[in-house]
Design brief:
The complex is a heterodimer of chains A (86) and B (347). Chain A has 86 residues and is an alpha+beta fold. Chain A has a single domain, classed as 2-Layer Sandwich (Translation Initiation Factor IF3), CATH 3.30.110. With 347 residues, chain B is mainly α. Chain B has one domain. Chain B has a two-stranded antiparallel ribbon. In chain B, helix 5 packs across helix 10 and helix 5 packs across helix 13. Classes of the chains: A alpha+beta (86), B mainly alpha (347). The interface between A and B is medium-sized, with 27 and 43 residues.
């Protein structure tokens, strides 16, 4: 797993190549551990995944927690961006 | 399967870990549809050899096999079938699970005589292999299942429990995948006279590879010499784990190759095919060990989840019902373990 914060205050989580159900579990863990940053500092969590099912499970769980979701297909992976509120 | 990500390991695992019941509902729909379709096929006498002779009497070995298989499929990130479609789309972790299943098939072949004697000494119901042997007819169980399925389906439609937005390109909703699979599998059962299976195909592949690298040891394992007559497409053909061209090679290798190549083509078409990077070490070990457990569980229970859940449950085979209980319990244990020991520690 690779994780870094980019110039635009996005927390970028690269979980490509991981076993099911790591995508959702790690994303939920990051949402919880970065809750204040995501809510107060308007940061976004950007998840890079190559699991198709994560495009169903992550948006579903994040929406229920009050996050808005956008999903883009990149070069052979999906980029899921989660932003609180909006 | 690839487009909907119809992963049977996820059916139980996601229900336990995330209270996500979408796949469980899809599997339920698939089993119910197959039960009705196969009943109709039997009613119109398109299948001659029934009640099914290829399921044995239920035993504690089926329960234990189900538990071991359930733990294995969760640790492996996919069952024996879903490992194949994930492998076809380039998932390295599934390749590790696949190798684990082959290695596990070879190792557990040494315990085959022990598994068989355990099964024969722990039979739960003597001389009965299917529910119709107990209730006298298959009509009543099919009717009860159909009514239950319809009432649950209507309830889930009302609550919006059949689908969830998914953003993957070319995503096929799970309920649609269930209907398509039922429409494909039921005629296959009618024509071949047998449910689908892959676990003996895995075992045969283990034996073939064992014969290449460890010929003396492989030759000593009785399991790799077993060839038994099977009814297939109206003919009696030999089939088993022995490394020869037989009914298992014809049907199960074809199915395995079909699933891998189907998902390969599908993932290429959707712009998703990629040999993924290696998973973290702990996950790689979990995948390999999970594959090994699946092979051992399938050997102990006389078949994997495809054989028992998709093949046996629609026929109300008692052995498959016991296996289903085991796999549900095993998946729970696997989910607890993967959460606490595999993913939680991954940094």
């Amino acid at each position: 797993m690779k994780k870094h914060t980019d110039a635009g205050k996005n927390i970028v989580l690269d979980i490509r190549g991981q076993i099911c159900p790591a995508c959702l579990m790690i994303t939920l863990r990051e949402l919880n551990s970065n809750k204040d940053k995501l809510k107060n500092e308007k940061a976004r969590l950007v998840v890079k995944t190559d699991h198709r099912d994560a495009t169903r499970t992550i948006p579903g769980a994040a929406s229920a927690m009050g996050y808005s979701v956008s999903v883009l297909q990149r070069d052979r992976y999906y980029e899921i961006t989660l932003e609180y509120g909006k | 399967m690839y487009r909907s990500d119809f992963c049977m390991a996820g059916v139980f695992r996601d229900a336990y870990l995330f209270r996500d019941y979408l796949r469980l509902r899809a599997l339920f729909l698939l089993i119910c549809l197959l039960a009705v379709f196969i009943y109709l096929i039997r009613y119109f006498k398109l299948i001659s050899a029934y009640p099914p002779s290829f399921f044995g009497t239920p035993s504690v070995a089926d329960l234990c096999g189900g538990v071991i298989f359930g733990i294995g499929m969760v640790l492996g990130g996919g069952c024996m079938l879903s490992t194949l479609y994930k492998l076809g789309s380039g998932h390295t972790v599934s390749a590790i699970t696949f190798c684990g299943a082959l290695f596990g098939g070879f190792v557990s072949a040494a315990f085959y005589p022990l598994f068989r004697s355990f099964a024969s000494s722990t039979v739960l119901i003597e001389n009965k292999t299917a529910l119709e042997h107990i209730v006298g007819s298959i009509g009543a169980p099919v009717l009860v299942t159909s009514l239950l399925a319809v009432s649950l389906a209507l309830r889930w439609i009302k609550k919006g429990g059949w689908s969830q937005p998914a953003y993957a390109r070319g995503y096929l909703p799970l309920w649609k995948a269930s209907i398509i699979m039922a429409l494909v599998i039921a005629p296959m059962v009618a024509f071949s006279g047998r449910p689908l299976a892959v676990s003996t195909g895995y075992a045969k592949l283990s034996g073939l590879l064992g014969g290449l690298f460890l010929p003396t040891l492989t030759g000593k394992l009785a399991f790799f010499h077993i060839e038994a007559p099977r009814l297939l497409y109206g003919h009696i053909m030999n089939g088993g784990a022995a490394p020869v061209l037989d009914s298992v090679a014809l049907t199960q290798f074809s199915l395995m190759a079909g699933v891998v190549s189907g998902s390969f083509i599908s993932s290429l078409k959707l712009g998703e095919f990629k040999i993924t990077r290696l998973p973290p070490r702990r996950q790689a070990f979990s995948a390999f060990f999970g594959g090994m457990l699946m092979a051992a569980g399938a050997l102990m229970a006389g078949g994997c989840n495809l054989w028992h859940l998709i093949g046996g449950l629609p026929l109300f085979a008692l052995q498959s019902m016991v296996f289903a209980l085991g796999i549900a319990g095993g998946a729970f244990l696997g989910a607890v373990f993967i959460k606490k020991a595999v993913i939680r520690q991954t940094k």
